[in-house]
């Protein structure tokens, strides 16, 4: 409505010269009555997105700072047990309450989050590197190499992630690195697929023909033109992988296959709290649970914002 | 001499775009290839410049038969062709600055010394100002980018130039400038040219000889094989 109101005003303005004067009128031709509403809806959606991005950024910053600062200031004694103060509800001295052997839940949550983030980042990066290399090789080499690699990916994909992950951790003594390896080795598949598809699409671009004609070797084309082309996608895949890896670490720990049970891991804590939850003590379950959910959603929110920047035209399909 | 003989090529073996086409280009000759859109001109140009492997047919370069295309072709054979494509936007890696775009074939050949001067010299030839060389493809116009693509095609001093609708996207003055740059290069190097387009006037003025796509399947069969009774 506002636009149509302003149009006659613009049309009655004679001063602009004929050449440029005709330009502002062009939009009014195709601007339908619904355009205003659509624009407003778009603005609202943009506003929500900006808010989500900003909230996610703040949360991620808080999480990272906490995880770096608190362990440096307050040490955690894994073995400390104080049965006199077990299962205390949240209070000023224990904001998150205490667990079934009297340990402070807030401190354990922070330590657990630290381990989760470590696993998430390392496993996410490792999975992305493996996936990118495999996908780029398959895409760049093509032919039988591509077929063999992609069938291998299909085989791995046909087994549920968690099952394969359990199988991998079961081969080692419980600890941090088997968990990282298990998550990394089960999560490169989707990245490999994405990178391969991207490489295949880049490979048929005329600039690759130009590079071939310019005498570039296959290796040079891969390193100079194909890999830089898929790097933004791979980086995004790595960030999207972090929350996923964190959930897997928690799941493995919850199943008792992840970190040793005495260690402060969020999955371990949720597992240990099951008994007290049935008895009506909600805090040992709630707080570690929130510590798993909130940071991962914040990271996913940031990744979503990045994805929209990379690919603004497909924004609606890619909304998280 | 380039001799394409009974070439069949395309992107799907069951439905080739180019069927049984023959074409020769003498050394130093400029041949213009005319034809309607989608008839397979560009595919033939891609075959001639070794970036597309034909399904069948023979291709002789200076009497030597070509056995391999794309990466598999020997480097010297590939770089004997300077190729300019129709859409500069698609033919330029969006991440490379124009300097790097033009110097890329030199770097791929391991010739780093003197690359800088060569780029500046070529930029002058194709009419690119020094200030544009530091920009990336999205920061220049189609015409400027096509100038850079021509410079890239010339950087290794090819013996053959293949221009696939090089000027289709460009205005008259840029077209004139690019054609002049190509002709300058051909005068001093004696390179042969195969240029593809559908602007009859331009090709007639530019080339020694223009052929229409429809002529290629019949007339240009120098040594007609078994199934050619009418040609002789």
UniProtKB/TrEMBL annotation, chain A:
Keyword Ubl conjugation among record annotations: no
Which PROSITE patterns is this protein grouped with? ABC_TM1 (PS50928)
Q: Where in the cell is it found?
A: Cell membrane
Pfam families named among the record's database cross-references: BPD_transp_1
Region feature (Disordered): 1-47
**Could you say which protein family the record assigns here?**
Belongs to the binding-protein-dependent transport system permease family.
Q: How is this protein situated with respect to the membrane? A: Multi-pass membrane protein
Instruction: Quote the SUPFAM superfamilies the UniProt record gives.
Output: MetI-like
- Residue ranges crossing the lipid bilayer per the database entry: 55-74, 115-141, 148-170, 176-195, 226-247, 286-306
Looking at the record, the residues that make up the ABC transmembrane type-1 domain are 113-303
- Which cellular component terms (GO) are annotated to the entry? plasma membrane
What protein name applies here? Peptide/nickel transport system permease protein
TrEMBL record, chain B:
Keyword Endoplasmic reticulum included in the entry's annotation: no
Q: Which InterPro entries match?
A: AAA+_ATPase (IPR003593), ABC_transp_ATP-bind (IPR050319), ABC_transporter-like_ATP-bd (IPR003439), P-loop_NTPase (IPR027417)
Instruction: Extract the GO molecular function terms from the UniProt entry.
Output: ATP binding; ATP hydrolysis activity
A Pfam family it matches:
ABC_tran
Biological processes annotated in GO:
transmembrane transport
Q: Which domain of life is it from?
A: Bacteria
Q: Which SMART domains match?
A: AAA
Instruction: Give the keywords, sorted.
Output: ATP-binding, Nucleotide-binding, Transport
Residues in ABC transporter domain copies = 2-230
Keyword Protein transport (UniProt): no
Q: Which PANTHER family match?
A: D,D-DIPEPTIDE TRANSPORT ATP-BINDING PROTEIN DDPF-RELATED (PTHR43776:SF7), TRANSPORT ATP-BINDING PROTEIN (PTHR43776)
Family stated for the protein in its record = Belongs to the ABC transporter superfamily.
Q: What is this protein called?
A: Peptide/nickel transport system ATP-binding protein
């Amino acid at each position: 409505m506002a636009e149509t109101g302003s149009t006659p005003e613009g049309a009655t303005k004679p001063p602009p010269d004929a050449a440029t004067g005709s330009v502002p009128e062009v939009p009014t031709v195709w601007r339908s009555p619904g355009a205003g509403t659509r624009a407003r809806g778009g603005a609202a959606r943009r506003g929500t997105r900006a808010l989500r991005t900003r909230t996610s950024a703040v949360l991620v910053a808080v999480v990272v700072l906490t995880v770096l600062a608190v362990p440096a200031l307050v040490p955690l004694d894994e073995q400390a047990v104080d049965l006199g103060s077990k299962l205390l509800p949240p209070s000023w001295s224990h904001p998150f309450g205490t667990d079934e052997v009297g340990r402070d839940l807030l401190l354990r949550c922070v330590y657990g989050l630290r381990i989760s983030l470590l696993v998430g980042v390392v496993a996410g990066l490792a999975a992305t590197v493996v996936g990118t290399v495999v996908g780029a090789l398959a895409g760049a080499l093509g032919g039988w190499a591509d077929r063999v690699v992609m069938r291998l990916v299909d085989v791995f994909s046909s087994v549920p992630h968690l099952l394969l992950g359990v199988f991998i951790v079961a081969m080692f003594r419980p600890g941090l690195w088997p968990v990282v390896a298990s998550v990394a080795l089960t999560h490169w598949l989707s990245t490999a697929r994405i990178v391969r598809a991207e490489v295949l699409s880049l490979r048929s671009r005329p600039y690759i023909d130009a590079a071939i004609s310019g005498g570039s070797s296959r290796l040079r084309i891969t390193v100079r033109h194909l890999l830089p082309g898929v790097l933004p996608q791979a980086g995004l895949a790595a960030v999207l992988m972090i929350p996923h890896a964190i959930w897997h670490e928690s799941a493995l720990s919850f199943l008792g296959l992840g970190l040793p049970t005495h260690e402060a891991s969020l999955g371990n804590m949720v597992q240990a709290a099951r008994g007290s939850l049935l008895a009506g003590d909600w805090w040992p379950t709630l707080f570690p649970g929130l510590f798993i959910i909130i940071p991962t959603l914040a990271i996913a929110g940031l990744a979503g914002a990045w994805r929209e920047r990379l690919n603004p035209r497909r924004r609606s399909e890619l909304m998280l | 001499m380039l001799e394409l003989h009974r070439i069949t090529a395309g992107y799907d073996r069951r439905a080739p775009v180019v069927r049984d086409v023959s074409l020769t280009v003498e050394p130093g000759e400029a041949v213009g290839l005319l034809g309607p859109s989608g008839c397979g001109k560009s595919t033939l140009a891609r075959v001639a410049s070794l970036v597309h492997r034909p399904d069948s047919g023979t291709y002789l370069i200076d009497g030597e038969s070509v056995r391999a295309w794309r990466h598999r072709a020997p480097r010297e054979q590939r770089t004997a062709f300077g190729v300019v494509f129709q859409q500069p936007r698609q033919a330029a890696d969006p991440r490379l600055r124009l300097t790097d775009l033009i110097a890329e074939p030199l770097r791929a050949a391991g010739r780093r010394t003197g690359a800088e001067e060569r780029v500046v010299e070529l930029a002058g030839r194709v009419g690119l100002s020094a200030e544009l060389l530091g920009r990336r493809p999205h920061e220049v116009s189609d015409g400027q980018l096509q100038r850079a693509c021509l410079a890239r095609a010339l950087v290794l001093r090819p013996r053959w130039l293949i221009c696939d609708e090089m000027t289709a996207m460009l205005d008259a003055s840029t077209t004139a400038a690019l054609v002049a740059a190509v002709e300058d290069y051909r005068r001093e190097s004696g390179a042969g040219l195969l240029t593809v387009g559908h602007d009859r006037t331009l090709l007639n003025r530019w080339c020694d000889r223009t052929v229409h796509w429809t002529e290629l399947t019949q007339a240009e069969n120098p040594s007609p094989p078994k199934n050619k009774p009418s040609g002789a």
